[in-house]
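Q: My labmate handed me this sequence with no annotations at all. I'd like to see what the chain might look like in three dimensions before we decide whether it's worth expressing. Could you predict it?
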Amino acid sequence: MATQALLDQIARNWVWIALRGLAAVIFGVLAFVWPGATILVLVLFWGAYALVEGVFALIAAFKVRDRGKPMWTFAVIGILGIAAGIVTFLWPGITALALLTLIAVWAFFMGIFQIIAAVRLRKEIQHEWLLGLSGVLSVIFGAVMMARPVEGLLAVVWVIAAYSIVFGILLLVLAFRLKNRAAGGAMAPAVRG
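A: Here is what I predict for the chain of 193 residues:
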C-alpha cells in the first residue's frame, strides 16, 4: 500500500519533524522571555524561526517520498516558511501591522497544509489528530490575527509565543510517536470501523 510506505518513510525521518517542533518551542520561549523587545527584535526572531522551520520542512519533504516524489505538503510549508523568513530579513523595519499580517497568512496556510497531511494519513496511524490539531491551531491563530491585527503588541507577542510553544510540543509528540513506529513500537495502523 502506497500510503503505508509513505508513513514508514515519515516515521524513519521523524527527526526533521522533531527539529521543527524544537524550533517552534525555542521561538515561543524567547518571545515570552523578551516580551518588551522592540518590534525589530521580534521581526528578526520570527524571521529566523520561519526560515529554520521552512528549511526543516523542505528537508523532510525531500526525505519523505510519496510515490517517488517529494511530499508536496511539506514542500509547500517549507517554501512558505523560507519565503516569509527572507522577506522578514530583507525588510526588518516592517511595521507591526505588516508583521502580524505576514505571520497570520503564513500560519493560516501552513495549518491548511498540515490538515491535508493529517487527513491523508488518518487511516494509517493512530492519533493522527496531533498533526491535524496543530494544523487547526494554525488556521485559527491565522484567522484571529487577520481579524484583529492591532489589539496590542504585547498581547500579540504572548499569543505568538503560546501558539509557537503549543504547536512545537504537538510536533514533538508526533515526532516521538513516529520514532516509536520506526523502531517497531506501539504506533500501529489505526483501525477504523
